[in-house]
Amino acid sequence: xxxxxxxxxxxxxxxxxxxxxxxxxxxxxxxxxxxxxxxxxxxxxxxxxxxxxxxxxxxxxxxxxxxxxxxxxxxxxxxxxxxxxxxxxxxxxxxxxxxxxxxxxxxxxxxxxxxxxxxxxxxxxxxxxxxxxxxxxxxxxxxxxxxxxxxxxxxxxxxxxxxxxxxxxxxxxxxxxxxxxxxxxxxxxxxxxxxxxxxxxxxxxxxxx
Length: 209
Fold this sequence. Notes:
The chain is of the alpha+beta class. The protein has one domain (about 30-60, about 75-205): q2cbj1_9rhob like domain (Jelly Rolls, Sandwich), CATH 2.60.120. It is about 25% helix and about 25% strand. The chain has helices spanning about 1-5, 15-25, 35-50, 90-110, and strands spanning about 30, 55-60, 75-80, 115-120, 130, 140-150, 160-165, 170-175, 180-185, 190, 200-205. Strands 1-9-6-11-4-3-2 form a seven-stranded antiparallel beta sheet, with helices on one face. Strands 5-10-7-8 form a four-stranded antiparallel beta sheet, with no helix packed on it. α3 packs across α4. The longest helix has 21 residues, at about 90-110. About 30% of the residues are buried. The model has no long low-confidence stretch (mean pLDDT about 90).
C-alpha cells in the first residue's frame, strides 16, 4: 500500500489540512462547505424518498453484537447506506468520504480501512443522551462524521443541536444544512438535544479493521 501511495503525486488539500489541524488541536472540526448546496439538496431528497418508502428502522444502543432499542436514551430512526447499492447522490457523498479517508491515511497514517454510514431522522421531541461513539467490545471507530441535511430555513429554535463535551467548555453546534462535524469517536462525549422540528442527517464513522 505504501508503494501505491508513493506512486500517486501528492496534492495538498487545504480543506482536509484544516480538518487535520482542527482535530489535532481540539479533537473536532466543523466545516460549513464540505458539500455543495446542490449535493445537500440531492442527499436530502434521497433520504426523504427512502423515508416515504418506509425503509427506516428504530435506532439501537450498542453494536450489532449487542444491540438494544432504548427510547429513553435515543429516539432517532435510521437507514444504513450500503455503498454497493447507492444512487447518484450517495455516490457523490462516498466519493468525497473516500477521498478524505485516503488523504488522512496518507498524511496522518491513521490506518482507516472501513467505514459505516446511515441516514438519521430525529422526529419532534426526540434526542440522544450524552454518550461516546465506541463500544466496550469494539473500539474500531476512530472518527465520527455528521452531515446535516435540514432545509435551508432551519433555525436555532428548531432544536436538535449537537453538544460536544470538552475539557473546560462545551461546544454547541446547530444543525444547519450542509454543516459537517468530524470528531474523535473515542475521545469526545456528545449528545443531541431535544428536537422541535424533524431533524435530518447522515451520520457515520471511519474505522480501523
